[in-house]
Write a structure and sequence with these properties.
- Residues 12-28 have a biased composition (Basic and acidic residues).
- Residues 1-35 are annotated as: Disordered.
- This protein has helices at residues 2-12, 16-34.
- By secondary structure, it is mainly alpha-helical.
- The model has no long low-confidence stretch (mean pLDDT 66).
Length: 35
């Protein structure tokens, strides 16, 4: 989880909005996989 957050922060620099959207999508994907 920490690694993903770090990468997201680094990539979020250029586009914060995109990073937030990507994070939401990633979280959704993770939840679906967990289930």
């Amino acid at each position: 989880m920490e690694n993903t957050l770090s990468l997201g922060h680094f990539h979020s620099r250029p586009d914060k909005h995109t990073s937030h959207r990507n994070q939401n999508e990633m979280k959704r994907n993770q939840a679906g996989r967990s289930m």
